[in-house]
Amino acid sequence: MYDWTEPGILAAPVLIVAFDGWVNAGDAGTLAASVIAAGGAPIARFDPDQLYDYRASRPTVTFVEGVMEQIEWPQMTLAHVSHAGRDVLVLHGTEPNWRWQRLGAEIADIARRLDVVEHISLGGIPWAAPHTRPVTTIVTASDRSRVDPDAAHPEGRLEVPGAAVSAVAHAVAATGVPTVGFWARVPHYIGTAHYAAALALIERVGVHLGIEFPVGDLVTDAADQMEQLNAISDGRPQIKALVEQLETLVDQEEGVSGEELAGEIERFLREQDGDLG
Question: What pTM was computed for the model?
């Protein structure tokens, strides 16, 4: 399923996984993963013919002056990078259309082979939150003891459509490797990459691992995007009213039960349409 380059001996590596598509609102997970993996060496490249339905995940064809120059196929890559002396493996790319169970088994085998000590999933979920407030994250894990009591997490029983990133995490966890997931709450009206959400995920992973990851231009990109969103909001009364309502909702979140908040968010989303982006 993949071409392999031996990375050598790794010291207590951690595996970070993020895919495009479902559970990646605002490109939060894949953007964060690509920043963390920047400068890393690819150690595994997966065969796209085994993972993708090209009618759903179409390759990009480039023409120059009418001449076909290249075809860029959807891809998934496992890269190795070292941060602060810590070995980090980053698997990211386009979410596969099929063979999720086999992919999970392959990644679990790689995790065993390289003695991975922890698996971290990254992603984003659309949320009734304003862009004017700090991005918060929701935490999931393979064991309840790994969820910080003070961290936001799904309450009670929750059933949602599955994603490949979850299928991989489940397969890895089945081998005994502990897993945790960090999911940025992305303002539901933003229909493009949300830099602040990616930055929040990187910072959250950094705190979790005790690593200060370099973020390149992400801080500047997030600040510039904030200015653009504020300008759009200020120039459109309907959008400004929406943002103000979300600010009130988020500010009142503390002290509201999970069931009440979920009901309020569902009601709010049903009444809104349109987005920024």
Answer: 0.88
